[in-house]
């Protein structure tokens, strides 16, 4: 079956799924939970094959760990499904209600987007999370997982499709896409796939964004900044910088460039160096930084690099303006923080910095759907439309306009025989 | 100056505009209103040149009319600006507030998208509407108007730029793009232009959608349907079909294909023919239609054509399912209506039809920002993300996440020393 045929099936399934009520979808989620548990040996066996093949192919240890789907992963995804069941049905939520005229009522009502093309990495547990999120939100899904996990992914997709069908979900809403070439085909399916959500390396995400007319939700880079202002409290600045940089270096919300105000640099940079070097962070500084602390030189390319590693670039700036200009020039619009005791400066920073997450006196590492309390996280977006920053299930929703009339025609209004009331309805 | 340089200026201006308070923006709108009035002779003179040139170039009469910017058009745009001033500032509106932990508060706050690339047709009054909408919503704008209106557009853009600067708006937020070739350049400016809103012919909009990685908000086709159900009230069905088709034929929300249930077709089609032919509508029917009324034959291509003219295609269907399948196969996701006295059928239609506007017992012509009570209309979107159907000023908005802490770091939470509260704030 071609990817196009697969997408057609997903579209048909999605349209039926969109019209299901919340109880049916919750029953399907419960069936999936039960089936995952009762068929766990089958899942573990498939995962064993993936692990064995990958071991022979010398897959790196961290990837082997991500690939593993064992009882503890199963428990995690089952807990995730239970919390999804507990959520209100997002479909049909009334966003706005207006009486246009007597007997002519307009409702803006939340509905699913349609078919989501999800491209994710080796973790098979992500497949379950994504698929169940799509089910709850009424979206069909084309799933492309890592080829390392293909046996596990097949069993999981199979279980989810069968179990959800048992509860009355339409066939076809969940589809697996397996090869790299098929991704290329996916990118051309405008009109069948409504939104692509890629997770993977920067260059991969960038490639997808450049090579598809389908809207893409995600982020390529995460070049995050902390600006330590002249009014910063050193006892907040040091832990915030250390946490932002080192709490987990390999992620998009980790700090990459520290901006520090000239007036506090001589006093604070030595303290920061001590704390960061204790965590094995390599520092690279601008010239002015290097006149204060003895570190490697940072070049132009450092400002535009997402290290994802124990490396931090440092630049001394003379003003808030200069800090903001640097962020706009080199940042990726992901997360930028200011450390200051001056509320006015903080508000100005947060007003002016054009970034999804603007933080005051806290670590950039808070930029995350779980920490934000969004429930399940669909991803993090640096787009400027639809959804921005950490995105929960509402990122999989759009709305339609439902207009209820009783024979109303426009001619009556354009001729002046009738007038619109445009009264908000409660 | 290249289009890229222009867009850089707009981006810089937009970032400053985004941080302005509502009073400053309203003062700027008031200055624009005053300047348009005091410099009206200059505007009319420029418009005179455009009209003269276009007359020599034999511009069609309807386009000449759209090109005209006279006192009555001036009055209209001035009224529009006054109503914009009366609206609340959309920037800074709090969409969500959550306490993540004591002293760590998260706010989701509305903010402008950034730089809008607006491509519109010959009407110079559209330039004023769009520019003032962008100003109120804090967005920079690159405006590409029709070349027929170039003299008028220049004067208007000039007035708006100068008058807004007088009130403290940043230079550069409004930029004019003049040639067709420059549109091509605009399409490649990802990262500088955040959203393109094209208005124009279907093929032009489609071209833009296919040839840019910048998100596009708009619609290419408007292939709208009315489905007359077996439980339709004939006294509602006939006026709704006539109004949907003929109230204004040259627009995207006009009816193009009538679907009618087999059980009412023999009785209703003759009545519909009489009413439609009285309005000079040419009918084209499927075979079954033609066994009931003597009309031209409709072929496959009719179902996928947006006539924008006094032509209507008609298809007899055997069920709601068949009607919905036809709409999903040939429709453009713009506006589709059902005529029925059965509320259950109506709800099923509105749940299942995957279209921006789903209407019950009223004309498709209601699909319009003004009629929906949205205030100024930015456009109509058939996209599946961000904004759908008639789009008001909220289509020019996105949000950012503002997190207020007091030295909070993530390590405290991942180590278990602290717990998130995730409590909604009022």
Q: Which pair of chains forms the biggest interface, and how many residues does each contribute?
A: A-B, 72 and 72 residues
Structural class of chain A: alpha/beta
Oligomer: homodimer
Strand order of the largest sheet of chain A: 10-9-11-8-7-12-13
State the distance separating the first and last CA atoms of chain A: 49 Å
Averaged pLDDT of chain A:
95
Number of helical regions of chain A: 16
CATH class assignment of the largest domain in chain A: Alpha Beta
What is the CATH architecture annotation of the largest domain in chain A?
3-Layer(aba) Sandwich
**What would you give as the CATH superfamily of the largest domain in chain A?**
Aldehyde Dehydrogenase, Chain A, domain 1
The level of helicity of chain A is 40-55%
Number of strands of chain A: 17
Number of domains of chain A: 2
> What form of chain A results from the Cα inertia axes?
globular
Q: Could you list the spans of chain A in which at least 5 consecutive residues all have pLDDT below 50?
A: none
CATH fold category name of the largest domain in chain A: Aldehyde Dehydrogenase, Chain A, domain 1
Radius of gyration of chain A equals: 25 Å
The major beta sheet of chain A can be summarized as: 7 strands, parallel
How much of the sequence lies in strands of chain A comes to 15-25%
